[in-house]
Specification:
Blueprint: E1 10-14, H1 21-38, E2 43-48, H2 51-57, H3 68-78, E3 83-88, H4 95-101, E4 109-113, H5 119-130
Parallel strand pairs: 2-3
Antiparallel strand pairs: 1-4
Helix pairs in contact: 1-2, 1-3, 4-5
């Protein structure tokens, strides 16, 4: 979770269950919303590289039955915000997600606090806030 300037303040790394990537994306979105509310944020911009999950959050498409419980929790949590938007970001541009996915969790949930952020993550957050795009070299 970072502010509009790309300053990191908290994140969560968890062991992931064996579910579809769309369900994982929705669970990540829900945890992000919960973090925003915990930090008393009233505005939130959600980005994800699953166009399906982002469409579902925006009320488009036909979600699978396995997604309905998480989507309901997302919808309920979003009502606590004054303003939000959810947008798709191409996987190639989502360098931040790749960095966080490399974070290992052995037992349960690990909170990543601002003083634990390493230089590469900090650079990725700042670049993302500035709108810098990263392209995959073929």
């Amino acid at each position: 979770m970072c502010d509009h300037k790309g300053s990191f303040f908290e994140g969560i790394a968890v062991q992931v269950p064996k579910v579809s990537i769309n369900i994982l994306e929705l669970q990540g979105i829900l945890e992000g919303i919960r973090l925003a509310l915990k930090h008393r944020r009233s505005k939130l911009w959600i980005e994800g590289d699953s166009s399906t999950a982002i469409s579902w959050v925006n009320g488009r498409g036909s979600p699978s039955w396995t997604a309905t419980r998480t989507l309901s929790a997302i919808s309920h949590s979003l009502r606590s915000l004054t303003r939000w938007k959810a947008s798709h970001i191409r996987h190639e541009a989502n360098q931040l997600a790749d960095l966080l996915a490399a974070w290992r969790v052995i037992d349960g949930e690990e909170h990543i606090l601002a003083d634990m952020v390493w230089d590469e993550l900090d650079r990725a957050l700042k670049s993302d806030a500035e709108g810098t795009m990263y392209e995959r070299i073929r």
